[in-house]
Amino acid sequence: QVQLVQSGGGLVQAGASLTLSCTASGRTFGSMAWFRQAPGKEREFVAAIIWSSSIYYADSVKGRFIISRDNAKTTVNLQMNSLKSEDTALYSCAADQSRITYYARVSSYAYWGQGTQVTVSS
């Protein structure tokens, strides 16, 4: 059974750093990503790493967040620096076996983590 288990998250002050992790069990994935959803808003793309060589970020987090994964392609991390109140959201990891082209699309990913809350107080 394929599962994506997330860890990390919590409540921090603006300007602080936080790291989220997502570990896959059951198989390895060619594409892994992070999305987030704030209350009353649609789920939005945050960052993706495709086949361990192509990395993409949303403009809103570029320069502050860093996505990385281990060589075994089972864990993806999201290091979040200089957090802002607008980063407050439920963060979910996503994964797919294929080499995704449309990495920012929710529908591109077959597997999802359980979600973890990140709250940034100003």
Throw out a few tags for this protein:
122 residues; mainly beta; 11 strands; globular
Distance between the first and last residues' Cα = 40 Å
Q: How many strand segments?
A: 11
What oligomeric state do the depicted chains represent? single chain
Assess the beta-strand content as a share of residues: over 45%
Q: Supply the helix-strand structural class.
A: mainly beta
Q: What is the count of DSSP helices, taking H or I runs of 4+ residues?
A: 0
What is the rounded Rg? 13 Å
The geometry reads as: globular
How do the SSEs run, as a string of H and E?
EEEEEEEEEEE
Show unreliable segments.
none
Helix proportion range: under 10%
**Describe the biggest sheet?**
7 strands, mixed
Mean pLDDT equals 94
Can you summarize this structure?
By secondary structure, the protein is mainly β. The protein has strands at 3-7, 10-13, 18-25, 31-37, 44-50, 54-57, 65-69, 75-80, 89-96, 111-112, 116-121.
Describe this structure in words.
With 122 residues, the chain is mainly beta. The protein contains no helices and 11 strands. The protein is globular and about 40 Å long.
